[in-house]
Amino acid sequence: MTHAPLDGISDLSIEAIDHDGVVLMALTGDIDITNAGQARAAIEEQLNNHPIGIVICLAVSFLASTGLSMLGEVHRRTQQAGIGFAVVATTRSAQRSLQASGMDRILLLHDTVPHAVEGLQKATASERPDLAR
């Protein structure tokens, strides 16, 4: 039996950490219609800071279609802005949601956060030597 929080909003924790210009955003809990806007706003805040890349680490127990849609929007916006974007799905439920929706064929997925961060840093360094650190 699952218990919904009394306020009706699923638990979601968002932490952002800068790794030499690549922002790691760790999302834990659930992403559904009650809090996808919260995740979207946090990611947009980071996009507005114009990082060289964003890595979304999905350590979530539930990833609803609204969360998948949000990831698609972020992918589109990062491409338009020339910002690197990668996703790490650390839980089986997040991996299944990405696979079932076909998002695993659209998004740049990595097995680990260090690989994702390093991959975006290397890609940026080769594409934009002026940003290499």
Question: What do these coordinates show?
Answer:
The protein has 4 helices and 5 strands; from the N terminus they run ββαβαβαβα. With 133 residues, it is of the alpha/beta class. The chain has a single domain (12-125), classed as Transcription Regulator spoIIAA (2-Layer Sandwich), CATH 3.30.750. It has a 5-stranded mixed beta sheet. Strand 2, helix 1 and strand 3 form a beta-alpha-beta unit. It is globular. It starts with 11 loop residues before the first strand and ends in a 6-residue tail after the last helix. Residues 129-133 have low confidence and may be disordered.
CATH class: Alpha Beta
H/E topology pattern: EEHEHEHEH
Oligomerization? single chain
Strand segment count: 5
Gap from first CA to last CA: 50 Å
Radius of gyration: 15 Å
CATH topological fold name = Transcription Regulator spoIIAA
Q: Supply the number of helical segments.
A: 4
Query: Which spans of ≥5 residues are poorly predicted at pLDDT below 50?
Result: 129-133
Counted up, domains total 1
Question: Describe the biggest sheet?
Answer: 5 strands, mixed
CATH-derived architecture: 2-Layer Sandwich
**Molecular shape:** globular
In helices, the fraction of residues equals: 40-55%
Average predicted local confidence, pLDDT: 89
Q: Strands of the biggest beta sheet: in what spatial order?
A: 1-2-3-4-5
Strand content: 25-35%
CATH superfamily: STAS domain
Classify the secondary structure makeup into a structural class: alpha/beta
